[in-house]
Every structure is written in structure tokens, then in C-alpha cells.
Amino acid sequence: MIGGAILALLASAFLGVSDFLGGLLSRKVPLITVLLLSQLVATVAILPRMLWESPAVNAGPALLWGVIGGVATAIAVSSLFKALAIGTMGIVAPITSLSVLVPVIVGLATGDRLSWILAAGLVVAIVGTVLASGPEVRTHTAGHGPKSIVLAIVAAIGFGVSNLSVALGSAFNVTTTLVSNTLVVLVIYGIGAVVLRQVPRARGRSLIGIVAIGILGISANLCFALASTVAPLTIVAVLASLYPVITVLLGWRVLGEHVKRMQLLGVIAVFAGVAAIAASTGR
User: Fold this and answer.
1) Is the pLDDT of residue 80 over 90?
2) Could you read off the pLDDT of 213-252 as tens digits, one per residue?
3) CA distance to 31, 100, 118, 143, per residue, from 107 (Å)
4) Which of 136, 144, 272, 282 is most buried, by the most CB atoms less than 10 A from its CB?
């Protein structure tokens, strides 16, 4: 259990930095360039794992969940990077932590009990999202507006489905799940580049940042997959959903972002709600 918790927290740390870099670079480099090149790096980084664990063992279910997770990941990451690029990171990132609701909802649908702590956590998280996103939706100046909030919600759903798929697939074969997931994402981004008729190019600091995104992203997925094999999915999912804390702090320290008092209360409420959900799933 402790090892799984540590791996889940590492996944959060890796994702938090990766998302910040993705949003930051997407403000000056075409989004498809950041997505495709970072995913290419992630693919190269994960392929050697096939030497560690045979991808043929229990390949069927792992491949299925890997493909489903890959589609969800492609939608989630592209939506998140775009939202972080056009919106306020301190608002967008916390909303994506609601991805934890997907495995929680699945758990409730399959027989888990709705405790009062879980119910309170869900309500607080939802109210916090409304408080944090409300001013953004009503403001139409540069860097604000409803588009980033909608994209953040799409990203949250996508990450929730992706995390659930990775966990379910990893129960059969971690390597097959992650490799198929990564390849599906790469193919989708490749198709996107063709459709947009863009040739991804990057150099200098941008290229270094893109490489870092790819390595951090696949490292986070690997930590999450391994954590899900040694600890309950609900615990792992909640701990791994804390990555927005890193993104918010980096946005504040590096970009000097400021949010309104109501939005700050909303952000705190979102994190408090997620913490309550974590407490309820750990009981």
C-alpha cells in the first residue's frame, strides 16, 4: 500500500511539471508540434520495457484497455494543453483534478457505498469548480473566457477514463497496456498533423522542453500503472489527481498568475473536495 501511494504521488509530481511545460510551450509553439514530438519521445522511452515484461502475456484484455486509454489520453492531453495555453493555469489545472470522479463513479456503479464523507467531498468539489470557473466564463478579455473551462472539463473526463483504462489493463499486463496506449496516442497526433498540414519542428529550449514533457508524461503513466497493481484503484486515482497543485504553484511562481478571491476559494474547495474523496476511499 505504501509503495503504491508513493508511486501515485510521483505520478502526480511528474504530471504537474509536464502539464505546466505543455501549457507554457503551447503558447509559443503550435499545439500539434508539442503533442506529436513529446509523444514520439514517450513512445521511444516506453518501448524498451518490452525487454522487461513480455507483451504477449494476457495481451488481449491489456491491448483493449490500452487502446481505449490511448484515445482518452489523446483527447485529454490535447484539451488540457490548449486550455493551459489560452486560460489561467491556476484555474484550469484544479478543474482537471476532477478526473478522480470517473473511477469513483464506476466504483459506486459497481457496488461501492456512498459514505457521507464521499458525498460531502463530491459536493464541495463541484461547488469549488463553479466558484473557480464562474468568473472565467463571464470574462471575455484575453486569456479568459468559457473555452478554457470547457476544455478543462473535457480533459478531466478524458484523464479519468484514461486512468481507469490503464489500471484495468495493467492488471493483465503493464507493458502491453502502456505500449498500446502510447502508440494509439502517437497515431492520433500523427493523423492530426497530416489533417492540419503541419510539419512539427522545434529547436533550442522548446525542443528540450518537449523532450522533458515526453519523458515526464510516460514516467507518470508508468508510475500510475505500477501503483494500480499494488494498491486500490480509488486510492491511487485520488493521489495521482493531485498533480494540479504542482501546475498551479508553477503558474504562480513562474508566470506570476493572480486569481480573484472567489476563484481562490473555489480552487481551495476543489482540492478540499478531492481530499475528502481520498479520505472516504481510504476507509
Assistant:
1) yes
2) 999 999 999 998 899 888 777 677 777 777 877 887 888 8
3) 35, 11, 12, 37
4) 136
Q: Please name the residue that has the C-alpha cell 522548446.
A: 206
Distances (CA, A) of 117 to 206, 257, 276: 44, 32, 6
φ, ψ of residue 27 in degrees (nearest 5): -80, -20
In 3D, which of 182, 171, 187, 163 has the Cα closest to residue 60?
171
Give the span between the Cα atoms of 161 and 102, in whole angstroms: 6
Query: What pLDDT digit, counting tens, does each position of 84-137 carry?
Result: 998 888 788 888 878 878 877 887 787 767 677 878 877 887 777 667 665 555
Instruction: Say how many C-beta atoms besides its own lie within 10 A of residue 57's C-beta.
Output: 11
Give CA–CA dist 217/22, Å, rounded: 10
CA 222/CA 233 separation, integer angstroms: 15
The residue among 215, 222, 281, 272 whose CA lies nearest residue 98 is 272
Q: Which three cell numbers stand for residue 86?
A: 489560452
The single residue listed with the C-alpha cell 516506453 is 46
Residues 263 and 283: their CA atoms lie apart, in Å, by 31
Query: Cell match 463571464: residue?
Result: 138
Each residue of 127-142: b (16+ CB within 10 Å) or e? ebbebbbebbeeeeee
Give the integer Cα–Cα distance in Å for 244 and 271. Answer: 9
Alpha-carbon separation of residue 226 from 5, 104, 126, 206, 233 (angstroms) = 10, 19, 30, 30, 11
Name which of 281, 279, 267 is nearest 97 in CA terms: 267
- pTM (two decimals): 0.83
